[in-house]
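are you around this afternoon, could really use another pair of eyes. what follows is a protein written twice so to speak, once as letters and once as structure tokens for the fold. i want to understand how the tokens follow from the sequence so walk me through it. anything you notice is useful, everything is just below.
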Amino acid sequence: MGARKMTITKLLDSVPMGGFIIVYARVAEIAQEVSRRNMARRG
């Protein structure tokens, strides 16, 4: 069975609070999206 392709945003949305995932992706892309989300939460 092949892996499904998900966007970084959808992937991060699917992780429960306190959960973790293992992903093969560019670290810079993940870090950028996490940073954007954190800034949005702070307002």
